[in-house]
Amino acid sequence: MNEALEILQERGFIQQCTDVEGLSDMLNKGPISFYVGLDPTAGSLHIGHMVPIFAIKHLAAYGHRGILLVGGGTGKIGDPSGKTEMRKILEYEVLDQNVFNIKEQLSRFVSERRANIPHVVFENNGSWLDNLNFIDFMREIGSQFSVNRMLSFEAYKKRMETGLSFLEFTYQLLQSYDFYMLHEKYKTCLQIGGDDQWGNIVAGIDLIRRKTHDEQVYGLTFPLLTRADGKKMGKSEQGALFLSSDLVSPYDFFQYWRNVDDRDVKRFMLIFTFLPIPEIEQIVSGNINEAKERLAFEVTKLIHGLDEAEKAREAARNAFYGTGLSSLMPSIELESKNLPSSIPVTELFTLAKLCTTKSEVRRLIEQGGASINNEKISDVKMQCSLEDLHGVVLRAGKKHVVKIIIT
Hints:
Elements: H1 3-10, E1 16-17, H2 20-29, E2 33-38, H3 51-60, E3 65-70, H4 92-110, H5 112-115, E4 120-124, H6 126-129, H7 134-140, H8 147-150, H9 154-162, H10 166-169, H11 171-186, E5 190-194, H12 198-212, E6 218-222, E7 235-236, E8 239-240, H13 250-258, H14 265-272, H15 277-284, H16 288-304, H17 306-321, E9 331-334, E10 342-344, H18 345-351, H19 358-366, E11 370-372, E12 375-376, E13 383-385, E14 393-396, E15 400-406
Parallel strand pairs: 2-3, 2-5, 3-4, 5-6, 9-15
Antiparallel strand pairs: 1-6, 7-8, 10-13, 11-12, 11-14, 14-15
Helix pairs in contact: 11-12, 13-16, 13-17, 14-15, 14-16, 16-17, 18-19
């Protein structure tokens, strides 16, 4: 097997491949051009989107050219794959901003300066989709697709149960056309992506073979990761683990990895870091808490940079092993002019965003999981004096801590 493919297999990336032997031979003859599509229907990627991006860096390290295709055109429709209902249709200005944000996030991650990986370029499929003539497109491309075959793919099967709009039905044609256009421009012969993209990838391969008679076109998918507890990878109590520090602070990002299940540490370290496999084996064979901290540090460093990773690690150590009063600790500022002189503890924890509702705070207190300056709260009706709140540390369970700053 080709060495780059073998690395992906050893690290747990590969779920399905249209032709492993053929792709291996093509990579050995390389370098090749390959791509992954990115959906801009949100203003930030989350960690689940990063599995193929990590794979891109592994392949690019062997000299293959990776193309990050941002869906400025297809995002105007929305991919139905993995969705139980139609996506919300976004304004074009919102999509354009999302495209910009995603390119900014990934530019830092794949840049030559940070990663020594020069073989990655960006494309936006809006450049060839936005001005298509519908009749011409349907004559040239739509005629190559069988509705019966399209409906055999799992993504469409599931949506047929709840209702599938014609708008979404055309998505597979457009994604296939993307593969075809990149094949024409860069001789792209491989599309990679999550396993929910299998049907779209196969459809693109079929289109290229029909239009160009090139048989050396391949698809490779990666597993849709779940945690050991069965929950979706990257989901936390607060929602998705976004890459944007405006949505998820580097500290909270660090804490997510620091608190993963013991059974997930090795698997996540193989996929979400570039540490050599023998080093990973050595790390996970030792103290599991030290291994979790190393995992958290490595992933945070890759996504947010070395400085933020070091700050997050120091803040976590101070919060949970030291005095808990480090200036690096996550904090929230509350304006005194907007607050009464006495605040119910249930309101204080919601203001600090440690809980979303007052009833959630009450449950936390009743279960013994709430504290102020390491003193457990037992009275759900407790009142907190505003003049005494500056600098106090609130804790919700073992994982979440916030310092209050009164301004």
